[in-house]
Specification:
Layout lengths: L2 H4 L6 H32 L2 H42 L3 E5 L5 E4 L1 H6 L7 H8 L3 H12 L4 E7 L2 E9 L7 E7 L1 H23 L3 E5 L5 E4 L1 H7 L3 H6 L31 E6 L5 E13 L2 E10 L1 H23 L3 E5 L5 E4 L1 H7 L20 H12 L8 E4 L6 E8 L10 E7 L1 H45 L7 H26 L8 E3 L1 H16 L3 E6 L7 E3 L1 H18 L4 E12 L3 E3 L2 E3 L2 E10 L6 H4 L19 H12 L2 E6 L5 E8 L27 E5 L3 H13 L3 E5 L2 H10 L6 E5 L7 H11 L4 E6 L4 H4 L8 E5 L4 H13 L4
Parallel strand pairs: 17-19, 25-26, 25-27, 27-28, 28-29
Antiparallel strand pairs: 1-2, 1-5, 3-4, 4-5, 6-7, 6-10, 8-9, 9-10, 11-12, 11-15, 13-14, 14-15, 16-18, 19-22, 20-21, 22-24, 23-24
Length: about 800
Amino acid sequence: MTVMDMTAGPARSDWVRGLGIAAISCAGAAAIIMALAVGRFIEAGDVLPAVYLLAGLAGLAGAAALAAWWVHRALAGRLDLLRQSLEASSDAQLVVDAAGRVAYANAAFRQLLPQAGEAPLDALATATDAAEEFQRLRASAVAGKRAIASLPMRAGWFSVAVHPIAGRPGYSFWSFQDITARHEMEQVIRDEQEKLVDFLDNAPIGVYSVDADGRFLLVNQTLAQWLGGTPEEIVRSGARLHDFITELPPGTPPHLPFPESIDSSRGGEAMLKARDGRLVYALITQTVVHSSDGLRTRSVVRDLTPERAMEEALRQTRLRFQRIFAHAPVGIALIDNEGRLDETNGALKELFDIVGRDGAGERLADYIAEEDRDTLAATLAAVAAGKPQAMPIDVRLKKHGRTASVFVSRLGAGEGGETGLMLHFIDVTEQKSLEAQFAQSQKMQAVGQLAGGVAHDFNNLLTAMIGFCDLLLLRFRPGDPSFADIMQIKQNANRAANLVRQLLAFSRQQTLQPRVLDITDVLAELSHLLRRLIGENIELKMVHGRDLPPVKVDQGQLEQVIINLAVNARDAMPGGGTLTIRTAAARNEFPVRRGHEVMPAGDYVLIEVTDTGIGIPRENLARIFEPFFTTKEVGSGTGLGLSTVYGIVKQTGGFVFVDSEAGKGAQFSIYLPRHQAELQQAARAEGGEGAAIRDLTGTGTVLLVEDEDPVRLFSARALRNKGYKVIEAKSGEAALEVINAAEEPIDLLITDVVMPRMDGPGLIKHVRETHPTMKVIFISGYTEDSFRKRLDSEAEIHFLPKPFSLKQLASKVKEVMETPAA
């Protein structure tokens, strides 16, 4: 084998290098020995041996030079091969000397970091985003230690390794392997792993694994939260599955939450108790794995608490619905397509009078009055066909004759695919009765308003008739034949006035003069008149209650109420009987409903008028207070007696009720509200035709305002006859003009209440602005209360109701004129 052969390949490089070094070493040693020998021969003067030795020494030198050449050639080839290998490497390679300068950098490194220059490490420090990790590598290189790290660089991720070079203190070899693809793949794997871990940790189900002793090997975050801990803490503490089970049947293995008889793969239910005491109703399914490491489980836990809560809520809802259905205040029935009852609630059973059975299977039509069955059947058929019910229908029930409003709705298909109907029955018997009563009340109110209007117009006519009769009577003596004729006219006019007063009483528009009275005294005074009215064949009993509170009423009107009731009782007892008038104090703790009226709570004085007569038929009870309603023969009554009673009592603020049956007499109960003020014992105001005769003449200026010509003419003549100066005005506007233009003071203003355009109250408001002390008398056929509310409550206003006579007019004017001005 030649030297070339030995140096031909990289495998022989170490052998060639050793052989060259050995040859050079031997040649050097021989040269030293021969040089010492030459020196000794020359010192001895023996030249020839010295020449031969020098020649040999020269030969050794040539041989050594030749050996050195071959060694140099072998090493240069090896270095070229190494350099070519480094340059061909795709990994960046770098050799740095002790000063940090480049000792060698291959092409890959120069491409990676073209701006490296002579200070590559500084350039590397700025080229990576992991400066702290790079400084660790650099420190390891300076310390002569090996190190490796993954660094992000501009070109991607690189695995950077640094190795110290032996025999070269401070020198280090750096290699840069591109691991961008691997890093991205690892990142993808890490991301997927994180997603998987996050999914398992935060899944809406619990996941765990326990060993054969039941100790937790793995717990996800969800289950750990249910148990009141963290996954790390539960596993690290050595907690066991059975520590969290509330009840364990005998024979339950440590790794199972239920006996082995239950199929684990299908799951079993267990109650978990968290560390904070919260209970978790759980369904646990698991598989058991047997491996070389021992037994472990793969377990999944589902929290059934929300489902149990929903089931409980549904159960409670069903119970509430059942209670609502059972105790609903309206009748509810579920019927099938054949019209038979499926279910009924308590209200319907009570309405239908179903006792001792539920009524299921019975025909609905059997409970409906025969005349209403066709209407109900048509409605049921229409709703069953999908047509909504436009409005409820009213049907009469077969039993008790009650009336019910029926609401029908269609139910969706049930379990058998069949549909049904739901019916609501609302008992409207009382409502229908109230509607009828309300209609009756409205009718009575309308008649009352009509009666009031008619009465007002009649009062104007009667005022003129009575007044002119009085003027005519002044011209004749009592013995004159014309005197009697005029008196007959006046008496009939007064009868007409009484009839008008009854109309006003019914319409509650009459003028009342209420005073605080003792009912006992009023009835005691009236008893003598009552005995004469009812006749000798009827016994009158007066039963006075004790400690009766005072009431505020118009005594004359109250007497009229008692007289009307007594006359009615007399007519109901043609063969004689007993009339009892009883008084008592009454107190209502709560409002009391009688028919369509509600009497408020409070203290009342009760007056009961009871007779033993023929009674009132039931069909007439609802109409007895209507005006002109009478059961008497034609010409025997006006039909205004009881309507007058009703109107007076209601206008006083009281209530009147009647209880009667045919053949059993009748009882009228009058409730008058208690008055809180002290009892006023004042004499009744004197007036009318029976008043004591006194001088009615006077002096002064009177302004008379009246739009009705006959009334104005009579009143003006009557007052002039009594000595007064009278100025007439036909309207409120004309009266204002007179007042504003008057040169002398007007002492008294007499005005009608109701007039076109400016009425009486409006006129007075204008007059008060300029003449606040002027005396005023209102005259009207309406009640005093109808205009009082429109005036100042403290205003000094007097009132004279129509119709009035000459004497009543003169008396009122005299009274007011003599009253000192306020």
